[in-house]
Amino acid sequence: MNFQIAALLAQDGLTNGAIYALLALSIVLVFTVTRVLLIPQGEFVAYGALTMAAIQAGQRSAVVWLLVGLFVASAAIDVVLNLRRSERAPQLRWLFAGKLVYPVVLLALVYGLPLATLPMLAQIALTLALLVPLGPLLYRIVYQPIADASALVLLIVSIALHVSMVGIGLLVFGPGGASTTPLVDVMLEFGAVRIKAQSLCVVLVALLLIAALYVMFGRTLYGKALRAAAMNRMGARLMGISPVFAGKATFFLAALIGVMSGVLIAPMTTIYYDSGFLISLKGFVGSIIGGLVSYPLAAGGALLVGLIEAFSAFWASTYKEIIVFTLIIPVLLWRSLTSRHVEDEE
Description:
Blueprint lengths: L2 H32 L6 H16 L6 H22 L4 H11 L1 H12 L7 H12 L2 H10 L7 H23 L13 E4 L2 E4 H23 L1 H11 L1 H6 L4 H23 L10 H14 L5 H21 L4 H7 L1 H11 L8
């Protein structure tokens, strides 16, 4: 291995590690606030990449009908709950109709716009608009009714949701893979090292998202509310911070990070309907290195996973996945030996 090969491998490792870091941060965020291990996080990545590819191909993706269905289900649940509280019928009709405005507008845009000829930024914005609301909707329909259940029940539900979303992905996008047009199709040269501008875009957007999360949690009222819910859910509830708001907000951020990650990596590899699980699993390894509590350690662990994966692909490509996932064993052993065991908070 010479310097040029090592530089290319490091470039790939840092690019993949940046995506894994984003996913690791979102997994830690969702777990600390809601106690949910968001196994379907990878499906947001796959959905984002495949939806972007469909838009660039001028196809009316059926994912918009998934969005409509989830909005209808969410509105129906709210109406039923309000009926039990003896709310008046006219108010419920306005509640139901109001929740359907957003999906109807998106339905009109998807079937009315020339998708293939839209500017790149407009295509990305439409992809985000179609998929990011799925996060809060899934929390409302799947997790909110069982928010007080044990961590084991929440884990089982996450596995079931992951399997369901993989099946829906096959139904919506089909078995074929897809990739998208690069955001920047330029090769930069620094001496003997050549760097893809797309890789720099991935790292830059990842850094911007991490910086935005840092500012949000440190400087904004909503961010501080989420931090409070993560540190002490009962105390945050007593201080008037709604656990429903905290759950929906964290799922919104997780969906935003997942979909944006899919848009970023789609030009660099072919994504299939079931590709998201393996990608999120590597982000999960990074979050485990951070103990599912530390954001800096989770991000650093995810970067390490990306670098190990890249260099393993060169030295032992057949065993690269085994090498990456074996990394979690010494971390778990070390944490088991150094952590003080306590009873579950329930």
